[in-house]
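@channel sequence for tomorrow's demo:
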Amino acid sequence: MSVTFATIENARRVLASEVLATPMLRAPRLSALTGAEVYVKYENLQVTSSFKDRGALVKLAALSAAERSCGIIAMSAGNHAQSVAYHAGRLGIEATIVMPVTTPHVKVASTKAYGATVVLDGETVTEAQRRAEAIAAAQDLAWVHPYDDTHIIAGQGTIALEMLEAVPDLDVLVVPVGGGGLISGVAIAAHAVNPAIELVGVEAALYPSMRNAITGENRPIGGQTLAEGIAVKNVGSLTLPIVRAHVADIVLVDEAKLEQAVNTYLTLQKTMAEGAGAAGLAAMLAEPARFAGKRVGLILCGGNIDPRILASIMVRELERHDRIVSFRLTISGDRPGVLGAIATLLGELGCNILEVGHRRRFLDVSAKGTKLDLTLEVRDRVHAEEIHSALAERGYRPVRIEPGKTIE
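structure tokens (generated this afternoon):
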């Protein structure tokens, strides 16, 4: 079966009343930030917090009675796993999911909670796939591929139908790309509705698999990425020709932009996005000029992020924007009252002390002296420089110790 507009419309009928038609809302604060008119499709509001609910249900609904009775198997770094597990449980189908050992715990726990048997194997989705294929052959299980399947692609394409019904005159859709299932379905549906709309894909810079396949480049693939949901080494044999025919360009985004996008969704839109889910916004932050003045549709395709990672991202973004800074002071005489005097000064300067550390064993200071490390919450870089100057005037010889930035 090939994927056509008709198959996507049929997939929509399968999903009716079973999967949420998520809101597509204008985002004025993102628009002000990027210079484009931005609309966001909130697929993080699905039951499993991911667009994968769509393709998974369409695929499972297409299985024969014999296939359902034998059970199914899938491999995934998280969102496909949860969606397959959830809908398989609803339909009374036994599901086995093979996940890489690097999958965030929150996604593994959620998959198990939906009733699936979880097997952790391999460092990557590719390695997990090899294990899943072996289990499928040994146990005669029906295969539910995360992206290289016509039913999966058709299910994901229903997102574009909803987007263009809500905002018919969009100029561009910016879509995260892993194996290509999402962007393939979205592209087919979008171009059937509006042949002039531009499709732009986004990959993590560490995993430029689709870009390599399309352009013939040989960029290295691999590494730890925040966007583990699109960290694939092999693109789909079904999706590749679709992407080649429909997608204008594939933008690569680095880890800093992915972190910024996750933080921006949280702080400006008050919504949760995982790294892959925020990739579209990351592309706009990385290349604002190419989207400036256009009506842009973003798919916030997943919100399953580890809370500890999210907390770390928020702190790192504060550091990048000089809202949290660290200084190392040299105190010639380690005498009572010095720390109190420094704290009083910092209070007068309007900053908040987050952390204090004494370093008495450094050999570049006298035995009666000490190094004092301070981590402070400040308003901005100008405020940080004011604090640096005030500490220097009082003889504390402050040095900025944030990596990559040193105030002399």
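heads up for whoever presents: The domain at 5-51+149-316 is CATH 3.40.50.1100 (Rossmann fold).
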